[in-house]
Write a structure and sequence with these properties.
Blueprint (H helix, E strand, L loop, with lengths): L1 H27 L8 H24 L9 H23 L1
Helix pairs in contact: 1-2, 1-3, 2-3
C-alpha cells in the first residue's frame, strides 16, 4: 500500500516536471506570455512546487549557461527511485 502511494507521488512529480518544462518552452518561444495572469500564476505555482526538489540538484551540478539540466536529472532520479520501489514491493511478497 505504501509503495503504491509513493509510486503515485513519484508519478505526480514527474507530470509536474514535464508541465513546467513545456510551459517554460512556451514562454521562451513567446507562445504564451507571463503578463497573462493565469500563465504567471501557473508558472509561479509550478516553480514553487519544484524548486525545493531542483535546488539541491542545481547546487551540485556545474553551471551550463542557459541550459538547465536539473529537471532531467530529477526525472532520471525519480525513475530510478520508482524501479527501486518496485523491487522492494516485489521482495516484500
Amino acid at each position: 500500500m505504501l509503495v503504491a502511494i509513493l509510486g503515485l507521488l513519484i508519478w505526480f512529480i514527474q507530470v509536474v516536471v514535464i508541465c513546467q518544462f513545456v510551459l517554460g518552452l512556451l514562454i521562451a518561444f513567446n507562445v504564451v506570455n507571463t503578463s497573462n495572469q493565469f500563465v504567471a500564476s501557473l508558472w509561479t505555482a509550478l516553480n514553487g512546487l519544484l524548486e525545493p526538489l531542483l535546488r539541491p540538484i542545481r547546487r551540485i551540478m556545474p553551471d551550463t549557461g542557459a541550459i538547465d539540466f536539473s529537471p532531467m536529472i530529477l526525472l532520471l532520479g525519480l525513475g530510478v527511485l520508482k524501479i527501486i520501489l518496485s523491487y522492494v514491493a516485489a521482495a516484500s511478497y
